[in-house]
Amino acid sequence: MTTYREVFADGEFRALFAANAAVVAGMTMQMLALSALVYASTGSPLLAALAYLGGYLPLAIGALTLLSLADRVRPRAFLAAWDGVRALAAITFAVGVLPTWAILAIVMAMGLLEAVAGAVRNALIVDILSTGGFVLGRSTFNVSVGAMQIIGFAVGGTLIAAIGPHPALFAGAAFMVVSAVLTRFGLRRRAPRVAGRAGLRETWHGTRVLWRDPAIRALLLALWLPNGIIVGAEAMYVPYAGSSAGILFIAAALGMLAGDVVVGRWVPPGRLDRLITPLQTLLAVPYLIFVFHPGTWLAAGAVAVASFGFAAALGLQRRLLDAMPEELRGQGLGLDSSGRMTLQAIGAFAVGSLAEAFGPAAAMTGAAVGSLLIVALLWRPLRRTGIVAFGHPAPSAVS
After folding, report:
1. Superfamily (CATH H level) for 10-384
2. How far apart are CA 356 and CA 196, in angstroms?
3. Which of 174, 182, 248, 346 is least crowded, fewest Cβ atoms below 10 Å from its Cβ?
4. Residue 324 and residue 343: Cα distance in Å, rounded?
5. At 140, which helix (H) or strand (E)?
6. Residue 140 neighbours by CB distance under 10 Å
7. Cα–Cα distance for residue pair 222/381, rounded to 1 Å
8. What residue segments make up the domains of the chain, in order of their start?
9. What is the pLDDT of residues 42-82, one digit of tens each?
10. Using CA atoms, how far apart are residues 51 and 35, in angstroms rounded to an integer?
């Protein structure tokens, strides 16, 4: 598959795409509303960051204990039920009777199964489009993430500014219900990919098989670490810009959308391999401007340019899919997504901790420096395993 028209010709993919878009919009509104709610009640940048990305912290636990479920559940039933659970949680938050600690506890508890849900959804892209259509299909999902984040931030930010965060949480719940309906009636019934029971032993075995492969390990680290630190900087938008934070969130989403459209549609796979390190460098460099405490619109321009660099993940994910055994596809893709989100939560915690001591602008600048150092450290492992960064492919490149 080489065009978006070919990808969207498949009705099942259209339903999965629309359901994922609804989930992203709903989760974006929920995360923004919870961050604003917690910051207003506590005044703590750290707790605001945890409210925004705290659900990602338990993903590592879910990935290490439950991820074998991803290849052993019926995808349609599991995803529809999980959307229903998320809608119920958002309604509970919106009622406004829970203290801050209870909100954070529920958000983190739900992160355990979110690792499995992400794995099931990513594996469905391959099941529907086949391996050859994965990069373009993944690109369309990333584009929808950018577009629906813009909608989620715009609608959520407007609701929060006009009438408070609680209506934004109700709106987020409505999007979750839409996703559940689209999933239930738009996808066909599928049997589990692997027969047998799922459990801790099966999860650990699959994880060991994946992690012991040098190419897979290098790819996972490259997908997790630079992105995680920069998303931690994004968690500082509310403390940095206050009521104008929505502008920064929208700018970041627009930059990510542009990167996925340009790179996913028009950059050939061989050239994309050579752009991985430059794109990851671009992801961090514009954040260095925060050392000068730029105004909202200059800051928005910087984060839009930086977010174009998230497109590096397309090349890394293509290599990861090629390197994984087919029987561990769901678990491998889930390990990627849950690891990235966990590192994003850790990044938010680390950057939020810096902000407590030095302020949001200094913390965001420090995040940029840290991300650049990690990109430099990962360059050799990627080259050594045959994954292209700068220059030409190494002789042992993964096919």
Report:
1. MFS general substrate transporter like domains (1.20.1250.20)
2. 48
3. 174
4. 21
5. helix 134-163
6. 24
7. 9
8. 10-384
9. 888 778 877 876 677 777 788 878 888 888 899 999 999 99
10. 5
